[in-house]
Structures are given as C-alpha cells and as structure tokens.
Amino acid sequence: MGSRCAGINSARALPEAIATVKDPRASALPLPEKPLTAHRFLPRTPLTGRIRVPGDKSISHRSLMFGALAVGRSRISGLLEGEDVLSTATALRAMGARIEKDGDTWVVDGVGVGTLLQPQGALDMGNSGTSTRLLMGLVASHGITATFTGDASLSKRPMGRVIDPLSIMGASFTPSPGGTLPLVMEGLQPAVPMTYRLPVASAQVKSAVLLAGLNTPGTTTVIEPVPTRDHTERMLRGFGVDVRVEEIGGEKHISLTGPVDMTPCDITVPGDPSSAAFFAVAASVVPGSDLVIENVGLNPTRDGIFRVLKQMGANIDYLDEREVGGEPVADLRVRHAQLTGIEVDPDIAPSMIDEFPVLFVAAALAQGTTITSGLDELRVKESDRLTAMATALSLGGASVEEREDGLLIRGTGGKPLAGGGPVTTHLDHRIAMSMAVAGLASAAGVEIDSTEPIATSFPNFMALLEEASA
Ligand code: S3P
User: Fold this and answer.
1) Which residues are annotated as catalytic?
2) Assign residue 152 a region: left if phi > 0, alpha if psi is -120 to 50, beta otherwise?
3) What is the pLDDT of residues 201-241, one digit of tens each?
4) Which residue ranges are tagged as binding site for 3-phosphoshikimate?
5) Rounded to the nearest 5°, which phi and psi values hold at 41?
6) Does 3.65.10.10 match the CATH number of domain 40-50+270-468?
7) pTM of the shown model
8) Residues enclosing ligand 1, CB less than 6 A?
C-alpha cells in the first residue's frame, strides 16, 4: 500500500470527548433546493491527446477513513476532491480527525480506533452512499450517537442493508420510514462480533461490517458469495490490520479480530476506472478518436467495463502496466472502433456495477443488440439507473427496452443518435456524464437538465472533455 505504511509516527494527544448531542435530529432538516444548470452536450471533433482522470472515489473515501482511525499522520496524494469524498472528510473532522490539504497532499491526523468523538451536529452525507454506509459501520462499534442526513437522492436509498447487520452487532437505529435517511444511530462499545453472509453483492455492506469489527473485541467475519471490490481488505492491511481471506466452497470468508491498532500509511490514489470509463466509451464511439487516459486503476474487481468493451470490439491497449498504491494501474490507449452488441454475462456485473449507464451508451451505438440482465442493484443507486437510462437514451433517439433486471438495446450500427432532451439526471452524476457522452455521438446534441451532480465524483469532467476534443 503506497510508499510508506510501516511504523507508527509520533502519536499526538487525543482531544477531549465532547458532550453528547441533545437533539440529534434537530439539524436534520433538508436544505432548500438549488436551481439547476442545464447543458447541451454537442457532437465533437475526435478525442485525442493525453488526459488524467481524478483519483479513485472508493480508495479516496477509505484513505480518509483509515487515516482517521490510525494513531499518527497519514499522507494522501491523488485524493479525489469530489463532493462525496469531501462529505467523508467533513464527517471525520466532526468525529475528531484533523484533515488538511498541504500543497497537493492531504494530511490526516487520526484519533485511533475506539476514540472517535461524539459529533456535535448531524453528519451531512450529501449524495454519497459510500460515506453513509461505511461511516455507519465505524459509528456502530463506538459509544457515540450520530445523525446521518443526505440529499433527496440519498434519502431514498435503502439503509436496511447496513442497519440489519450493524443491529446484530449491537447498534440501535431510528431511521426514516422505509429504512432511509435521515436516521439516528447509537453505537455500542464494546460491540458484539459476528459472522455475516452478505445477502446482496455489496462492497459497502461488506465494508460497513468489517469497519464495525475494527473496534469489536473478537473475530468479525463477512462471507462474500460473489466477489465485490476489495479495496477495504487491501487497504486495511496497509494500515497494519491483519485481514484474513479464505476461499471456502467458492465463497470468500473475510475476517479480522478486534480491537485493532491501526498504523498510519502514505497513500497514492490511482485514477478512477469508473471515471475513465466515460472517456473510454467516448473515444470508442466518436470517429477518429485516439486518446490516452493515464494512470487508470485496473483492480480485477473493478475492470469489468474494459473487459466488456473489448468483447464488443473496442480498441483499448494497456500501456506501461505498473502498480500504484498497491493497485494495478495502466495508461489506456483508446481508439475509435465499430462496437458490436453482445449479451453481457451477469457474473461480471459486480466488477463494473457503476459503469452500466455508460455501457448502455456504447450499446446504443453498437452494431446489433446488447442484452444485460441481473442488474437489480442498479435500481437502488443514486437513481434507478435502469429506468433513468432507458428514458434518457430513448429521449436521445436510441432503441431501448427496459426489463425487470436489465436493458435490451438495439444499436445504431455506428450512426449518430438523433439527440434531444432535456433528459432528467435525478441528481445522479453517472446519468449526467453518460448522457454527455451520448451527446458527443449524436446529430443534434443531448441536453441534460443539470450538470451539478457531476461534481460528486468528477469535478473536472467538463474541462477534460474540452481538453480532449480541443
Ligand atoms: C462502492 C461500492 C459500490 C459502488 C459505489 C462505491 C464502494 O456500491 O456502487 O459507487 O466504494 O464500496 P455497492 O456496495 O452498493 O454495490
């Protein structure tokens, strides 16, 4: 993990505990809605040159969280400065960590496992499911009470999937109806260890339980029938935690024994494959493109989109394959190619769960039909991504049939989509960026109702698009 994750730096004095919150839901009122900024993404000249996408969102969240739990100072370079990650930083500061930017590096002075402080007000998670679910895991085994709030999109997303296991470990919850935010939770210290088999393929649920286990005496085990992104396991080891992974009967048993002491770590965050995917599809579908996307993380639990695009005939070369921050990384050279529709194997879904919206755009421009299935999880992301993309692509002129657990898309065979809109992004960054890519390969452009959500994961998306098609 990174370049330096060994010994403990000089420990600093731990701040005094702060008095408990009197009315934890008092500051949970929703903020007034901001006006939206619509934008039409027009057809473009080929995408060329070299670009570098921002740091991986999943790794960025975990860098801050694990840094906050170590005793001493961790340094992070390449952190994604998107709104979701900044929500994590703000919440961790409210629980005692010092997090500051020093030049290009983020510096985290942790409080140590077991000594998170009582936050004074509600923790505003914005749009970020990862912040919410992972931080709920942390709070669950600390003797503190926390209120979690979020925007309209996050407030619809199911939290029962983390409430259930964390309740077994001893935390108590007062959620909004349907198990949603705003919710108040009270951690239990010491919590109760357990073995938990994941009922859904979710790295967030896996991580929430493992993070609760960090301050729980005894062994906490998560059984993972279907592999999901493994950044938590890899990175916890970098912070000195003994994470054991056993393969039993085709399932992963992931265990750690708490309470643990975590040692600080210097981390270099690789580029986000989920962000690179928008440019990989854009360069594949805009004729004449020849684009290098530098420093893209290619963890095998995350690279499904590139494997599927290649199956569809995409021209993607991995250049200078190397390791950054303990993760496989390469520069991706992507050249325009005529894509062909395929039936996507549902087993690959967890390794590209966030990339389906942009894959649907690639499918809409392919030769022939693309069929996807097994994608029920897409209905509970930042929006219902099956309905949102079926509606948006149809408005843009594509032929899409929505099914219960996937989409069937008849491609144009490389002809530009008609274009149109405005399409509704539902506060979902990936719908916004996917439809932006659709606009590049359309005759009249595609208008999206709001560009604001893009900042949650890819603040310089528009600037990079300008740079690549200049
Ligand atoms: C994430 C896990 C995935 C993914 C999300 C980030 C993580 O969510 O969609 O963007 O960092 O653990 P699920 O665990 O709900 O599949």
Assistant:
1) 354
2) alpha
3) 999 999 999 999 999 999 999 999 999 999 999 999 999 99
4) 57-58, 62, 202, 204, 354, 381
5) -90, 115
6) yes
7) 0.94
8) 58, 130, 202-204, 207, 229, 353-354, 377
